[in-house]
Amino acid sequence: MMPLTPLSLTLTAYSRKIAKAHPGLFRRLGAFDHTGFILDPTDLPFVICLQPNGGVPRVTLMRGKGTGTARISGPLAALIGLVHGAYDGDALFFSRDLVVEGDTSAALALRNAVDDAELDLSQEIAAITGPLARPLQTLIAFAQRRTGVCLTRPDEAEAW
Asked: At 129, phi and psi to the nearest 5?
C-alpha cells in the first residue's frame, strides 16, 4: 500500500505555489475559502481533502471517505479534465459521471474558481521544477497520449 503522507505534503506544497501564482483562485471562493472539499477519484483507493485556508491550502490524501462540506466524486480523468477545462462539468454531472454531495453551493464555487483560473497543471509543475521542466513536459505529453487523460489545458480551438 502506498504511503499517503509524502504525497500529501508534496501536493500541499504544490497547491501553495499555485495559490501564489493564482491568488484569485482562492479569492473567488468567497465565503467558501475555508470550506473543506473532498475530491473523490473513484478509480483510486484514496480521497483528496482540500482545505483552501484562505489561500494557504492544505491537501491531505486519505483512505476512506474523508469529511468535508462538499464532495465531488468521479473518475480521476474527469476530475483532472475539469481543472483543465477539457470537460463540461454540467455534462459530467447530468450524465452522472460526476457526483456532487453536500453543499452544492460550495462545490459550484470551487468549480467556478477553478474555471476562472484557467489552470494548466502541467505548466504549473514545469514552473516549479527548474531544469527538469522540459523533460517533465515531454513525459507528461507522452503520458497524456498513452492514457487519454487530459494532463494539459487544451487550446481553445481544440476544446471546441
From this structure: -100, 0
- CA angle centred on 7, ends 15 and 141, rounded to 5°: 70
The count of structural domains within the chain is 1
Which tens digits make up the pLDDT trace of 1-45? 668 999 999 999 999 999 999 999 989 999 999 999 999 999 999
CATH number at residue 80: 3.30.1050.10
- Does residue 91 lie within any of the structural domains? yes
**pTM, rounded to two decimals:** 0.85
Q: Do the domain assignments include residue 124?
A: no
